[in-house]
Fold these 2 entries.
Entry 1:
Amino acid sequence: MLKNIVVFIAIFLYSQTVEAQWFKNSFKVMGTQAHVEFWLESNEAKQDKATENIEQHAQQLISIVQGEMQRIDEAMSPYKANSELSLINARAGTETLKITPELFHLLQVSQKISRLSKGAFDITYASIGYQYDYRNQQRPNKSAIKKALSAIDYSAIKLDEKQSTVHFAHHNVKIDLGGIAKGYAVKRCLALLKEAGVTHALVNAGGDTGLLGDRHGRPWLVGIKHPRAAYKMAVELPLENEAISTSGDYERYFIEDGVRYHHIINPQTGDSARKVVSVSIIGKDPTMVDALSTTIFVQGLVAGMKLIDSLPDYEAIIIDNEQTLHVSKGLQQQ
Ligand code: AMP
Ligand code: MG
């Protein structure tokens, strides 16, 4: 982590009293690449002092963003034995556990999207999900899937809001927040930057991007990756004050006998969802767009568009198996 490269960009606007500058930083966290970019202004009268202060201030903000993402990773990673999520997975099948309000909140949001999508989004997908190992090209066989399917059931997660507790009504239930935690981390980081007085910022973690304001007089340009050409963009969108999340079958996968096994699982079958290849959701709330991109990916074009068109605050761009691009009604009107 210490080897992170800090890139300070070079747009200096000198005047007698105001100095302003873009700052950028990229780092690895939550098993992915994260990126932050923001505009800082200093109203100090003395220019030299201002430069020192603005750079110190930028470093501070970068540390806050990195620290926040790392903190969320420590709590929610399934790969860290001591994370709160791992503790829940180890014990909530047999006892009622008190959990932090933060994790409780994310479990509640996850339940809400599960109900909204009739189980297309289901964090208990992990009851089978943990038997996939994409790096080593391992997948569960049919009988392992069959055995695990009864533990894929979001209604088995019992939440008590007053006590802030969780209990799994089925012994073998496991949960995973990979479909929602990065969006939440982006949301938290944007809130911290805003609190610090920043008005133009971009925070990205993997396929999740959140924007504060515009890119100083012009919109931010956010790309949606081409699903079958690693370094190409399928689309670039001018956005401001929005969040966008993309779920794609090219992020973590292996191909066996011509079949693509990837990280987004249809909870009904325990197998990878294959109705579409890429789903991007645009809206104000980074947590929601993250969860919805995973949801719509599982639902596919017809049911997915129907759900998005019923939600006035969210729009979708879906790329189907023939690599045709489809956009939701709200985007067609623009
Ligand atoms: P994203 O990249 O946001 O689409 O999220 C993909 C991640 O969501 C996967 O790596 C899993 O951690 C998790 N996931 C996979 N399938 C589901 C599902 N059906 N419901 C909720 N989370 C899922
Ligand atoms: Mg997602």
Note: Residues 1-17 have pLDDT under 50 and may be disordered.
Entry 2:
Amino acid sequence: MTGRDTKHKIEDLALFGGHALFSEQLHVGRPNLGDRETFLFHVNDILDRRWLTNRGHYVTEFERRIEDCLGVKHCIAMCNGTVALEIAVRALGLTGEVILPSFTFVACAHALQWQQIRPVFCDVDPATHNLDPQRVRECITDRTTGIMGVHLWGRPCDTDSLEQVAGTHGLRLLFDGSHAFGCSHSGRMIGNFGDAAVFSFHATKFVNTLEGGAVVTNSDELAGKMRLMKNFGFSGLDNVIYIGTNGKMNEVSAAMGLTCLDGMEAIIETNRRNYERYAEGLTGVRGVSLLRYDLREKHNYQYVVVEVDDTAGIGRDRLVEILHAENVRARRYFYPGCHRMEPYRTLQPEAGGVLPATEQLVQRVLCLPTGTAVSEEAIAAICELISFCVENSRSL
Ligand code: T4K
């Protein structure tokens, strides 16, 4: 940021020839790094041990720390969140049709379709952005075997209602908690609801392992199955007792995860500070509303999400164009919705007809840069810029 780049007139905007507000790009999902020295110390230790993967010390320790942190019985670390989803889906015995939101990252749908399971896209509650249990009921057919709820932006699904629907209809209930590591719901940590929960520890996530993921569960049986599945089905040396794949996390990834877990409270503090600065800066900006978190619960504040409605006078996409020109790489997660991506738009061309809330949200939602790489001054400048755009929307 140069300081001289406050916008006073339309021509000051970079899109119209002015200086960009930031000299470097500000990203959504810039990785949170824990203490660098600690991480490098671990990496050296890993090299000294010459034990890089397969039941290593660091992965074992990472799994134990996650179990403690969430109060779950089992954590099975994996190479990424998508493979974790695929393995969980398979271990749960899902077949036929599984109900999930379209308003999520496409990996959720792919993890099903990859295994010839039809993703049935269900609408979300426009207020929570999460699966609407009533709509879920309407999606159930005699081919339905499960529900995949996604705790979007780290805000919990209506777990009580979904557990009730699943129980009544004999369905398995899997949660994708990729955004919700470290978040609680009704005083319990996310990870303790349904049959199992998946986390992504991708570089862009609150806690990252470079690439990585995990499944957590309180079921001994499921955990046993998934441990076999992620390691080719090996049970001891030379003894394969199950069909499996390679879903293992490596030692360096686990070391990164442990370093992030050590720094977790500090990262939350920064994220919360950023969230509060956005809340202040966007107060009173017409048509731009910040998604709120339940302050009684634990939260990681990893996503700063706004909805831009018609009263802003400027469309979300025009705003994104302006922000990008200023080097603010805001993201339209999860545009255009899974149902409008291939292969789903070809396989299920009618899906959008029952997704009115999703169709509206994908046009309105915007994620703004946050995390440990974004300063308070930068946030104030981003808010001023958004406010300027709304005030001058008629000319934009
Ligand atoms: N379920 C949910 C609900 C998910 O959100 C995800 C992943 C999954 C399942 C699957 O888990 P994984 O298999 O990925 O573990 C990103 C991530 O790649 C993806 O992990 C994440 N969700 C999704 C929400 O976001 P893209 O296509 O936006 O990634 P990309 O490369 O554009 O990165 C996002 C921004 O982060 C960029 O603007 C730059 C910045 N960045 C990224 C990387 C990788 C950095 O500054 N440094 C980096 O190292 O999908």
Note: The chain has a mean pLDDT of 96.
